[in-house]
Amino acid sequence: MDLLSRRARTIAPYTAGEQPSDRRYVKLNTNENPYPPSPRAMAAYLDYDLDSLKLYPPLEMRALREAIAAAEGVSPENVFCGNGSDEVLALCFPAFFDEDGAGAAFADVTYSFYPVFCGFFGIPHTVVPLEEDFTQDLSKLTAAKAQGLLVANPNAPTGIGIPLAQIEPFVAANAGRVVILDEAYMPFFGQSAVPLTKMYENLLVVKTFSKGYSLAGIRCGYAVGSRGLIEGLERCRDSFNSYPVDRVCQAVCAAAVSDAAYYAETTARVVAERARLARALEELGFAVLPSCANFLFARHAERGGKEIYAGLRERGVLVRHFDKPRISAYNRITVGTAAENDALLSALRGLLGR
After folding, report:
1. What is the DSSP code string of 19-52?
2. Global pTM value
3. Which pairing describes strands 203-208 and 221-225: parallel, antiparallel, or unpaired?
4. From CA 187, how far away is CA 180, in angstroms rounded?
5. Crossing angle, helix 85-96 and helix 113-121, to 10 degrees?
6. Residue 354 DSSP symbol
């Protein structure tokens, strides 16, 4: 007897990067930060009053929202927090899109959770192809008939960033509909659109503690936007789960966001390794897209993407391969530590006979 709903039977879920446990791998497939969380974040975790865990988390998450607001230069009333940026993005769909409306529009090669969210919430969507070089022509996205627009900046899985000078006119041109900027990888680019949220009521910027803050395991994300947009997210969240961010997570993330100096240092190390790794890959015959994220998107001149992925996996190195149109020749490679990147390059030399 099939007791599942039609939606549960037909939905195509998001596929996360693999997490195998059969052996120890050099893990460069899920874009985790290779450096530990800040000392302040670690201290907040280790010193937390565990007796308080018998109580529900603070409903308004005031301390966390105040810490984020201070770091971003906005008011706490303009900050929304959730259980990872994926949850924040998911709540955007019922908050800003109607099932019988014009729906959402986003690129064909971008974060693959967007169409999954549309399918889950029954939101129609329009796909706007990236250019041949994988850059995004924002005027073509503006031309789409949609209730709102989503842009990952820097984009995933390509890593290409859109300068802030191009973002502002794009937001202004779409004043009558919501513009959602997914800035998960913005720490490695440094051109956040958060300041624009004070000028444009239609702009929502979504961020995460997973990448730049080295806290992928604790699950926290946030959005910054006008009070009207934040209220929409709050209404949807409180119809689902009023306590999405636990007490420990709130304390750790509030401490992390206050330690800008530490994260500036670790981000600089990732960016430096990104440049070194890109050069080394090019010397091995790879074409590497210009990345503003903590990963590289690369294809080899002679070997297919799936072959490169499988060969590296056999040698104990995990990268991400997407068997999809336009990008099946590529692999997404997380920028690790210098030692991890050297292990990748060594495995590639063995695979390529170099």
Report:
1. ---SS--EE-SS---SSPPPHHHHHHHHT--GGG
2. 0.96
3. antiparallel
4. 17
5. 40
6. -
